[in-house]
Amino acid sequence: MRRFLLAGALATATLGHSLAAQSQSTPLPSFSPAYQPTSVDERGMWMEADEDERRLRDSPLVLRDEALNAYVRRVLCTTVGDNRCKGVRVYIVEVPAFNASMEANGTMRVWSGLLLRVQNEAELGAVLGHEFAHYELRHSLSAFKRARTATDIMSWAAVLGGLAGVNTSLLQWSVIGSFYRFNREQEEGADLLSLKYLASSPYSAAAAANLWQHIMSEHDATRVGRKRKPHQRYSAGFFDTHPTELNRATYLKEAAAKTGDSSNELAANGYRTAMANYLPRFLEAQIKLNDFGGTEYLLGQLASANGWTGDLLYARGELYRTRGNPRDLVSAAQFYGDAIKAGYTAPEARRGLGLSLLRSGQMTDGKAALDEYLRLRPDASDAKAISALMAN
Amino acid sequence: MMRSWLRGLAVAAMLLVSMPVAAQEKTGSKPGFTLRPGTARIVLMRPSIRVGSQSTGGMFEPNADWTAQARENLARALNNIQAGLGNQVIVYDESTTGEGALAAQYGNLFGAVSESVIEYQFFVGNRLETKKRKNTFEWSVGPGLANLKSLQNADYALFINTNDAYGSTGRKALQIFAAMGGIAVTSGIHVGHAGLVDLKTGELVWLNADRQMGGDVRTPEGAVKRVTQLLEGFPGKPGAAQSSGK
Question: B192 burial class (0-12, 13-18, 19+ CB within 10 angstroms)?
């Protein structure tokens, strides 16, 4: 069964207190390579995970670029150690959302939306370490058993309570609550073990808390973009499978300080270089999410490191043109123009520029830009539509 | 994407509601279709087989041993029965073609098409306008299948999937106690479907889907019974008596 990093992502107050004691810089737990499952339950789970992995291996959503895969694997190995990472199979799946997961048998899924959001190797390592911790601690198995026990109790309570004419709903709710609480405790356990990996790796342990900080900022930006109030909670709701982002950022920061890890190593430059080829592709998928506020925040974050590159400017033009208010089209035309000036060579910038200008009533300039687009890309899939537009 | 049991807890009350089994057809085939004369070569795509038990609360508990036994028993039973019909069953092997991933995509496509057949053809009241004429069975995964080199030695592809959850002792006890209170709790899930695709045209020529199958797939005898049920309505040969699957 799959373990997710984020899922609902929101925690109970009681958790916050229990952490501090565990997070002292104790050595990593011992690890047995090539572990084989033994109990009936665990072997069953591995079998299911094996079947899932067969399907995943053949999925068209998996990014198979060798260099990219080798890079993500190297970050995992640097974080958890070569001995631990050997048996893990990493699959980079093209899904534009922030998540990663790990199955009981050692299948790790990394979503492309995660690669777009983390800003350096240390942050990526924090997430991969978290997923690896679920695997090392065999959380899938204990969560499965816990769920089974909970549903068993509830079924008996319903039937026997019904026979005896006793209302058992309070008992049922407390069982449900304990299950979700258990799940949140597992997440916290994985967060803290991940921090230990980071502390014993060259990467900075402080990165984990930073990651949750900008994830929170992005969610706030999304909410503001959708005309809702920004809102971060410390306490998790009843059905939340994960501690809240604010809670995670808080305990990870405290725990990181206690590890005494003095490393400042983030490897941000290496990260940007490794992702450079994929950035346009990931951004294109992100823009289609119709999340103006969140995307604008993400672009700002990416630009804060290296300035507004052609890729980022083009993406920003696309973002504004997609929203399409008259004022957005003016901004979009500006961004496309800046992208071209910044050396963005793909003809699509002319296309975006031309469409934005046409829609703003600047026919001559718009048609000139579209003409240029068709000249540079005569076999474009939308060539006919663009020609028709220009004929008007 | 989160596993159903995680979310399922919130709706645990539903576990105690048994689903009414709606009247539906179980099998369909292309009218007038017969297997090619002589030995029909049928390639068996990797079957999806899941065997486990059903916990007291209704969760599926996968069992690796039972699944391995079922895989073996079902394959043997299938071979014997098809050999009896004069057909040859070959297990799919991508060999050196590198087509494994593409073949897996076709397997997924078959799954989607067969779900549609069950939903929009087998449920008579739910038929689409184009499926309402009598004696029609027009479903296909597309002619592209004929281009797969790894399938060129076969005439038909057979897809099989089965899902079995045997009621645990706890589930059975719950069923008895619930019955005392007049509540119907089901114990055990045994569903399966099988379909045959003509590799030359991509057409689905026969599909059989059963929500309540018999035969314990963990035993060789049970597997024979299960395969016989799975192959109900399997197309016969031209001129031959329709003896198949009965």
Answer: buried
∠ CA(A55), CA(A57), CA(A63), 5° rounding?
125
Distance of residue A220 Cα from the nearest chain B Cα, in angstroms: 24
Copy the structure tokens of residue A159: 């039937």
Helix (H) or strand (E) holding B196: strand B189-198
With beta carbons under 8 A apart, name residues in chain B contacting A4: 1-2
**DSSP reduced 3-state for A72:** helix
The pair of structure tokens assigned to B13 is 């009350």
Q: Does B80 touch chain A (CB under 8 A)?
A: no
pLDDT at residue number A239: 87
pTM: 0.84
pLDDT exceeds 50 at position A9: no
Beta bridge partners of residue B190, listed in sequence order? B164, B212
Looking at the complex, report in whole angstroms how far the Cα of residue A130 sits from the nearest Cα belonging to chain B: 17
Q: How many other C-beta atoms are found inside a 10 Å radius of the C-beta of residue B213?
A: 20
Residue B136, amino acid: T
> CB contact, 8 Å: B188 with chain A?
no
Query: Which of A109, A146, A148 to probe by mutation at the B interface, max B CB count within 10 Å?
Result: A148
Q: Per the CB < 8 Å rule, is B16 touching A160?
A: no
Largest separation between any pair of C-alpha atoms in chain A? 83
pLDDT in tens, B41-61: 999 999 999 999 999 999 999
Mean pLDDT of chain B: 84
Query: A45 in contact with B at a CB cutoff of 8 Å?
Result: yes
Structure confidence at residue B27 (pLDDT): 87
Interface confidence, given as ipTM, is 0.81
Write down the residue that tokens 């991940």 correspond to. A194
Residues A114, A99: contact at Cβ < 8 Å?
yes
Q: Which of A42, A46, A47, A105 to mutate to test the interface with B (most CBs of B within 10 A)?
A: A47
Tell me if B104 and A58 make a contact (CB, 8 A cut-off).
Answer: yes
Q: Give rounded-to-5 percent helix, strand, coil for chain A.
A: 65, 5, 30
Cα A258 to Cα B38: distance, rounded to the nearest angstrom: 77
Taking alpha carbons only, the member of B78, B60, B32 closest to residue B194 is B78
Domains, chain A, ordered by start: 3-259 (no CATH), 277-391 (1.25.40.10)
What pLDDT score does A375 carry? 96
Whether residues A147 and B5 touch (CB distance < 8 A) is answered with: yes
CB-nearest to A152 from B57, B104, B177 is B57
CA angle A252, A257, A259 (to 5 degrees): 95
In this prediction, residue B134 has a pLDDT band, given cuts at 50, 70 and 90, of confident
Domains of chain B by residue range: 24-31+39-230
pLDDT of A165-220, one tens digit each? 888 888 888 889 898 999 999 999 999 999 999 999 999 999 999 999 999 999 99
Query: Quick one: closest CA in B to A241, which residue?
Result: B6
Residues in CB range of A35: below 8 A, 6 or more apart: none
Q: Testing the interface with A: which of B6, B99, B175, B187 to mutate, by most A Cβ within 10 A?
A: B6
pLDDT number for residue A41:
93
Q: Give the HSE-up count for residue A8: Cα atoms under 13 Å, Cβ half-sphere.
A: 19
Rounded-to-integer distance, Cα B204 and Cα A139, Å: 42
A140 and B CB contact within 8 Å: no
Q: Does B64 contact A239 at a Cβ distance shorter than 8 Å? A: no
Contact with chain B for residue A335, Cβ under 8 A: no
Cβ distance of B59 and A147 shorter than 8 Å: yes
